[in-house]
Amino acid sequence: MGILDHVSELCSIPKYNRKPKKRQQFQTVEMKMRIDCEGCERKAKKALKGMKGISTVEIEPKLNKVTVTGYVDAKKVIQRLRWKTGKLVEPWPYVPYDVVAHPYAPGAYDKKAPPGYVRDVLDDPKLAPLARASSMEERYSNAFSDENPSSCTIM
């Protein structure tokens, strides 16, 4: 390396190692927001309209449900909707009752849930033990089940 190369390295501007931006994955974000009228519906659509990465916005006023699809971050969508509308917005806490093993266990059954839905208690550590059957209950229910091949010998 010559003197000229050494001097040019000293005078050069260092390159910044920029990390490439991580692209968001295409996802569906479901939120619960109280929708009283058509004005609330328009306000929610207008709040999400200018957000970058959103493909579609669907609002179901009877279920108080807002569904957003696109290359977005769920937390940012919820935060923006909460800030622009001034309403309480939370992630959609309900699942179809067919998915939960014990849909009418304490904590899973919710009177405010839309018809055919119960609260998703398997993700909630406080309510999950109430919604799951104990090993003894499972043993007794499986012993007399039609799916158990040795249940005929017990009966």
Overall description:
Keywords: Metal-binding. InterPro entries: HMA_dom (IPR006121), HMA_dom_sf (IPR036163). This is Heavy metal-associated isoprenylated plant protein 26-like. Pfam families: HMA. Residues 26-100 form the HMA domain. This protein has 155 residues and is an alpha+beta fold. The chain folds into two domains: 26-92, Alpha-Beta Plaits, CATH 3.30.70.100; 95-147, no CATH class. Helix content is 32%, strand content 20%. It has six helices and six strands. It has helices at residues 3-11, 38-49, 74-85, 128-131, 135-143, 151-154, and strands spanning 26-33, 54-60, 65-71, 89-91, 94-96, 117-119. The chain has a four-stranded antiparallel beta sheet with strand order 2-3-1-4, covered by helices on one side. A hairpin with a 4-residue loop joins β2 (54-60) and β3 (65-71). α2 (38-49) crosses α3. The chain is flat, with a radius of gyration of 26 Å. The termini are far apart.
Q: Any idea what the shape is?
A: flat
Helix content: 25-40%
Tally of separate domains: 2
State the major sheet. 4 strands, antiparallel
Residue runs with pLDDT of under 50 for 5 or more positions: none
Widest sheet, order of strands: 2-3-1-4
CATH fold call of the largest domain: Alpha-Beta Plaits
What's the order of the H and E elements?
HEHEEHEEEHHH
Number of DSSP E strands: 6
Reported CATH architecture of the largest domain: 2-Layer Sandwich
How is this structure best summarized?
This protein is of the alpha+beta class and 155 residues long. The chain has helices spanning 3-11, 38-49, 74-85, 128-131, 135-143, 151-154; strands spanning 26-33, 54-60, 65-71, 89-91, 94-96, 117-119.
